[in-house]
Every structure is written in structure tokens, then in C-alpha cells.
UniProtKB/TrEMBL annotation:
One of its GO terms (biological process) is cellulose catabolic process. One of its GO terms (molecular function) is cellobiose glucosidase activity. It holds the Pfam family Glyco_hydro_1. The keyword Hydrolase applies. It is an enzyme of class 3 (hydrolase). Coiled coil: none annotated. The lineage of its organism: Eukaryota, Fungi, Dikarya, Ascomycota, Pezizomycotina. Keywords: Glycosidase, Hydrolase. It catalyses: Hydrolysis of terminal, non-reducing beta-D-glucosyl residues with release of beta-D-glucose. Its EC number is 3.2.1.21. This is beta-glucosidase. Belongs to the glycosyl hydrolase 1 family.
Length: 463
């Protein structure tokens, strides 16, 4: 028996600018740090880059038709900062051609009855801001520039966009973009994104929300962790600590308006930046409306003994995919780090809701099927594994909301189409649409056509 979903449960699909748009040199777009990174020698991205990607910039009408065909009620996409402000800074000129692209996209969605959900920042920082002051390593400069960029978006798109996500997975951006001292840089970059989020939300709440009436939040990632040895209290602590280091890092200041988790202060000491009284006052004005959750997998945590190294960012735990009894956390997908663990997803939802008390939207969830990176189109579209993954995760949402009291209001499948999986290049296929990277032809996979019904059936079983 599948568990029922809340009525009015929202179904959408998600993407991000650099992963799909292409057209990197067109219509005045400035470079982003991902343009640079993808062209480094030797390659850090398996030879792949986003120069063309899915060519969504030129094919967006076709992609919007797909969304409509899939029964999407909402579409989550991100704006490329350097298309809107090529150099990115608060005194730099706007690029009207870039703004016009997003206007056409937004209008196209609305014409099809699909609600736009806009992410302001999905990792593609304007290269110029990196060159000027090191991007997120300058807490003051970056938040001033981000606030201005956010204000431009509210001004130019906010008459039609009523759902805003400030940052996508600031954890990834902080941990994986350290270039120098990895014992301090992640914590500074995280601090800068928290403050930038707060500035952008406060600006929205004060100057736009009263007129535009929208909502704003952030998308945080983070696996659920269970103790490796369920009998060992130290592993239980390690599992909780691991989640505090991942989620609490951002959620404590953003949703609880509190300092970083105590376990982080204890381990990182003065390497963790401090919030001032003025920062806490800003948090009071920066109430977020929802918790955006990107969720893919779960793991086991085993405590480490001895002092953690200076570049430990996990909270002194070992992350494992099996527990002490050798039980795997879940069924293997097409990527080594992604096991399907719906039972732990249910616990995760319940824990996050209890801790942070905001309605949850799943802003990403999905997987590549086993072996899909080597499949031709005919095989890839028969994506039974993905269908099962979606169904199991929707069931987990149903159980968490019906039985555990969590509030989960919607679900965005990652992703609308196969696209550039960052450092993994074009190998992993997360899409519900098959992308042929030679011809750029799109073909719906079975999951794309079935997902709508999966949600509908589960919503109906409530009545
Ligand atoms: C998280 C990121 O937000 C997205 O860009 C990425 O493609 C998916 N997870 C899958 O790894």
C-alpha cells in the first residue's frame, strides 16, 4: 500500500543554469567560475564543459513543452548571475539581453500554467568577482554584491516570480571550492553565503514581499546518518554530529537565528567565524518561508578517536555505506555515492521538520539508474529503477507527513533532463528526459510520464 501525500502536493522538475543552458558567449553573458574551471588543463571535469550543455538557451520553448507534457505544476531553474550582471558587482552594468532571456523563460512558464521557482545562485559565481576579491572568501564584499544582484532579480522578475531560493547547497560550494588553506576557507565561504542569504531575504521581506507577496527560502543538502554500531552511544553522537556539521552549519543561523552548532564551535574553535550583534539583528529581519531540501542518499557514521585533523569538515566521523552488521544503507544506483534509502529519508524529513519548524519542499531528488551512463537512448528511457526510486521516496514523504507530523509541501525531481553533472561530466544521467549530446534531441523516459500519476494516485488516497 502506498502512503498518501498531503492534498495540494506540488510536483515540479528542477535544473540549474550552467548545467543546461550553454550559449556561454552569447548576448553579453560574462564568464563564471565554472567556465574557467571546465577549461582547466588537465581537465577536472572528465573533459566536459558547459559551452553547449543541453543548449537550453536556444531550446527552452521545447523544454517548457516537455514540462507541460509531464504535468509539472512548477519548474525550478537558476539564474546565471553573469548573464544578468556580466561582471557581477554592485556598481557594474546590467545586461538587458540576459534579463530578456529570463523574461521569456518566465513568461513561457506562466503561459503554460507552470509556476516558476527561481534559484538565485547555483554555484556559477561571476569570474570577475573571484578575480576582484576571491568571491566567497570576502565576507563583506560578496554579501553587498549578492544583495544587489538579488534586488535586480526581484525588481525585474518579481512581478511574476513568487518563489525564490537564494542559494543551492552552500555546503558544496564551501567545502569543494577551497583553493588555499582548507582549514579555514570552507568556514569563511560558508559564513559569506549565510550572510548573503540573510541580506537577500531581509531585502525581499522589507522592500518586495509587501507588494509582490512571494516566498523565499534556501536549498540545503545533507544525507541522513544512522550510527554504524546501533549499540554504541559514541556512534549515535557521531551520526548526529555529522548532520550538524552538514545541515546545522547553515540551518542554525538561518532558521533558528542562532550561532553555529556547539559541536562545530568545539572542534573548529577560532577557525569558525563569529556572528556579531548586528548579524543576529539582521537574522531577525531575514525570516525564511520554507526549507528547500535536496536529498539523494543516506549513510552510516562511525566515531573517530583522537584529535581531528585541521582540515576535517565531517565532524570527526567516518562515513560508511554499510553498518556494523554489514547491512547496506540501500540499493545501489548508477553512482557510487548514491544508494536508495527511502526509510532513512523518512527519518530525515521528520528530523529536519522537528528541528527547524519550516514547511519543507523537496527541491531535488533523483538518481541515475544502474549502468545508465553506458546506455543508448532505447535502453535509458526504460528507467524502471528511477520509477521505483521516485515511488519509494514519495511513499517516505507520505509516511513522514501522515505518521510523523512533518510538513512537506512539494517535490521537484532532479532533473528535467540529463545534463552536465559538474566534475563528473556528461556520464551520470539524472534526467527524466534523455539528452542525446550529439544531436541535442530530447526523449522522455518512462519516469517523466509516470511521475505525475504517482503523485496523483497518492494525493487521491487521502480523500
Ligand atoms: C545537487 C546539485 O544541486 C545538482 O546541481 C546536481 O546535479 C545534483 N545534486 C546531482 O548530483
Amino acid at each position: 500500500m502506498s502512503a498518501s501525500l498531503p492534498s495540494n502536493f506540488l510536483l515540479g522538475f528542477a535544473t540549474a543554469s550552467y548545467q543546461i543552458e550553454g550559449a556561454v558567449d552569447e548576448d553579453g553573458r560574462g564568464k563564471s567560475i565554472w567556465d574557467t574551471y571546465c577549461h582547466l588543463e588537465p581537465t577536472r571535469t572528465k573533459g566536459a564543459n558547459g559551452d553547449v550543455a543541453c543548449d537550453h538557451y536556444h531550446r527552452f520553448e521545447e523544454d517548457l513543452d516537455l514540462l507541460q507534457r509531464y504535468g509539472a505544476q512548477a519548474y525550478r531553474f537558476s539564474i546565471s548571475w553573469s548573464r544578468v550582471i556580466p561582471k557581477g558587482g554592485r556598481d557594474d552594468p546590467l545586461n538587458e539581453a540576459g534579463i530578456s532571456f529570463y523574461n521569456r523563460l518566465i513568461d513561457g512558464l506562466i503561459a503554460r500554467g507552470i509556476t516558476p521557482w527561481v534559484t538565485l545562485y547555483h554555484w556559477d559565481l561571476p569570474q570577475e568577482l573571484h578575480d576582484r576579491y576571491g568571491g566567497w572568501l570576502d565576507v563583506q564584499e560578496s554579501q553587498a554584491d549578492f544583495e544587489r544582484y538579488a534586488r535586480v532579480c526581484y525588481e525585474r522578475f518579481g512581478d511574476r516570480v513568487r518563489k525564490w531560493i537564494t542559494f543551492n547547497e552552500p555546503w558544496i560550494q564551501s567545502i569543494f571550492s577551497s583553493e588555499g588553506d582548507s582549514s579555514t576557507e570552507p568556514w569563511i565561504a560558508g559564513h559569506a553565503q549565510i550572510m548573503s542569504h540573510a541580506r537577500a531575504v531581509a531585502a525581499y521581506n522589507r522592500d518586495f514581499k509587501p507588494r509582490q507577496g512571494g516566498q523565499i527560502g534556501i536549498s540545503l543538502n545533507g544525507d541522513f546518518f544512522e550510527p554504524w554500531d546501533s549499540e554504541d552511544p559514541l556512534d549515535a553522537e557521531a551520526a548526529e554530529r555529522r548532520m550538524q556539521f552538514h545541515i546545522g552549519w547553515f540551518a542554525n543561523p538561518i532558521f533558528l537565528k542562532q550561532d553555529y552548532p556547539a559541536c562545530m564551535r568545539q572542534q573548529l574553535e577560532s577557525r569558525l567565524p563569529k556572528f556579531t550583534e548586528a548579524d543576529f539583528a539582521l537574522f531577525q529581519e531575514a525570516e525564511s518561508d520554507f526549507y528547500g531540501m535536496n536529498y539523494y542518499t543516506s549513510q552510516y557514521a562511525r566515531h573517530r578517536t583522537g584529535a581531528p585533523s585541521k582540515d576535517d569538515y565531517l565532524g570527526s566521523v567516518e562515513e560508511l555505506q554499510w553498518n556494523k552488521q554489514g547491512r547496506s544503507a540501500g540499493e545501489a544506483s548508477g553512482l557510487h555515492w548514491l544508494l536508495s534509502c527511502p526509510e532513512m529519508f523518512r527519518k530525515h524529513l521528520t528530523r529536519v521538520y522537528k528541528l527547524y519548524g519550516k514547511p519543507i519542499y523537496i527541491t531535488e531528488n533523483g538518481c541515475p539508474c544502474p549502468g545508465e551512463d553506458n546506455m543508448m537512448r532505447e535502453e535509458s528511457v526504460k528507467d524502471d529503477y528511477r520509477c521505483r526510486y521516485f515511488a519509494d521516496h514519495l511513499d517516505a514523504i507520505g509516511r513522514s507527513t501522515r505518521e510523523d507530523g512533518a510538513v512537506v509541501k512539494g517535490y521537484f525531481a532532479w532533473s528535467l533532463m540529463d545534463n552536465l553533472e559538474w566534475s563528473d561530466g556528461y556520464g551520470p544521467r539524472f534526467g527524466v528526459t534523455f539528452t542525446d549530446y550529439e544531436t541535442l534531441e530530447r526523449t522522455p523516459k518512462n519516469s517523466a510520464l509516470l511521475l505525475k500519476n504517482m503523485v496523483k494516485v497518492r494525493c487521491q488516497s487521502v480523500q
